[in-house]
Amino acid sequence: MRNYRHIEVRPVAGALGAELAGVDMARTLDDEVVGEVRQALLDHLVIFLRDQRATPQQQVAFARRFGEPIEYPQLKGLPEAPLITAVVKLEHERNNFGGIWHSDTTYLAEPPMGSMLLAREVPPYGGDTMFANQYLAYEALSDGLKATLDGLVGVSSSAKAEVTKTREDRMKSAGAALKVLTAEHPLVRTHPETGRKALYTSEAHTLQIKGWTEKESLPLLKFLWEHQTRAEFTCRFRWEPGSLAFWDNRCAMHNPINDYHGFRRVMHRITLAGDRPR
Q1: Which one from 170, 205, 268, 269 is the annotated catalytic residue?
Q2: Engineered SS bond to 208: which of 27, 65, 90, 217, CB 3.0-4.6 Å?
Q3: For the segment 34-54, what is each residue's pLDDT rounded down to a tens digit?
Q4: β-strand partners of 66
Q5: Which of 167, 254, 265, 268 is catalytic?
Q6: Which domains are delineated in the chain?
Q7: pTM of the predicted model, to two decimals?
Q8: Is residue 254 flagged as an active site residue?
Q9: The one catalytic residue among 44, 102, 185, 250
């Protein structure tokens, strides 16, 4: 277990995830604290802060200490903070935004390194988010399958039916037109900071394997999608107002659970720029 001098880090599961104490995102943080928060992210893949009272502007300032915030490609941000996207499910809506296992926006040529989600309104129960460690998912594969995956490239699309359905309500309320975006990335990527290999595909975005037909691709991809989210690779986070989750999209997937029909859930998300997966 790593020793932290300025913050307290409490793991929430064996696979990934840790709650941090001693961090107030509404205040200007010392460089030493920022460094330890970033190290905790690299160690645990997703970190959680409780009881945060930050304004949107303070949330953006906090995010800038860890990377470059970028606009979400499908929806406009808040009027007072364009770099923050409101992730909302209203009482009458049935679909939740992004309600499928995925890593964010892999259909971009340079997908985000991380995402920060701050809970503003949460249902009285339900609406948890699950996370999955893609280092462990890759390391659990046989040597033969690892060799098969070496060099294979996945074609990601923003227009797969499974994920576009989760955006329908927000796109309609925003009056936004759906832009179809595609990108190609290795099915196994090497994390640029840790040097570890991680699976990098999802049912939400991966359309097929480059050079293969969709029909040829599906058996292998379906195996990977089921394998990636085995229970022993996951943790589950229960939200409260003021909770923040900050996850590393380069090695972790997430899935917001859609089990709170009839209740409102309002979250503020910031996405941090990344690099081209290799």
Answers
A1: 269
A2: 217
A3: 999 999 999 999 999 999 999
A4: none
A5: 254
A6: 8-272 (3.60.130.10)
A7: 0.94
A8: yes
A9: 102
